[in-house]
Each structure stands twice: as C-alpha cells, then as structure tokens.
Amino acid sequence: MRSYRSLIVSTAPVAADRPVTVAEAKEHLRVVDYTDDDTYIGTLIDAATRWCEDYCERTFQDCAYTVAFDDFYKLRIELPRPPVRLNSSAASATVTISYVDTGGTTQTLVWAQSGTQQFRLDKDHTPGLVYPLYLQTWPSARLDDKAVQITYLAGYGSVASVPVAAKHAIKMLVGHWYAQREPVVVGTSAADVPLSVAALLEPLKWKQYA
After folding, report:
1. What is the DSSP-derived secondary structure letter of residue 13?
2. On the CB side of 87, how many CA atoms lie within 13 Å of its CA?
C-alpha cells in the first residue's frame, strides 16, 4: 500500500543520463546512418524510460524526488521509486527530512553520507527506508497536509548499472512507437504495449521485494 501524499520530481533527469543513448536506439531501429529523426528518437527514449519506470515503480534515470506525508505515519518510512542513490558526490549523498513541528515551525533533519546523520537510512532495502536513530523516535509533527517532506536522489548512477532487461525493454518500446506513430492503425486489431516489454520488466517491480 502506498501511504505517501504526493511524489514530485524536485530535480529533473538530464539527457546525458539516459539509460539508452540515441545511438543505441538507432542501432536497435536499424537507422544508424539516418540522422533526420535523432531528436524525435531522443523524445521516444525519454517517454519509454518514463513508461518503464512507472511500470516498475523504479528509477532508471537519475533524478531527485520529494515525497510528502501528513505526519511521521510509521517508524520505518519507505522512499518510493528505488534505488536510493548516494555515491556520486557530497551533494547527492544527502537525504533531508523537512517537517512542521507542533508549534507550526518548519524543522529539518539531515542524513549525510560523510557528515551529520540525524536519522538512519537503509539505501539497500527495496524500497529505501528511513527510520529514527537507535532508541529514538521521530519528533512530534503536527498532522497537516504534507507536513513531512523527504528529499532524496534515486537512480542507478550510471548507464552500466541499469538492469539489462530495463534497457532492452526501453529499446523495444522505442521501436514499437517509432514504427507505429499513431494511436490507432487502420486495418489492424488494437493491441496494448507489447507483452515482451512487460515480461522483461515484471521481475523489476519493487513491490515484489518490499
């Protein structure tokens, strides 16, 4: 069950971190020597990546999220869209929790990979978890709309670390959309996203391991 109030992308992914490059997609499409559609293929990669991430509830292309809750609703709080990523730079290796205390003042807790750690973080759990320090509890927060907000970086950190099945599913989806550019093809029966794409992604759904 997803208990968060909202999940937004606070720092958007960049093209340089695409799990599949335009060159790789063109090789899959067999249009290596054709350049007119390069920009279009790039947009298809972005759309296919988002679709695959949504299907798996994972993050393949690095970005920062802010997830909001109405309070500290349980001891161990899940961080959606794993994996949590910490190992690129000091800025990326920080998780922050902003909350409104019972007096209405906004407070901030920080977990830094090499610094202050005001709560515990399990980045290797799927999904990632945050929970209080040993023998401590969460501070008192007033029950209010999005009173608790957690900001963190997610993604695999490098193209090489993205699961092969995910990259192949993205390429297959790009190929499907590149060949079929309209929502309906006259003279053929309607079909959903190719089942092979879903089959590749099914083992990556994090809900199977939570």
Report:
1. -
2. 8
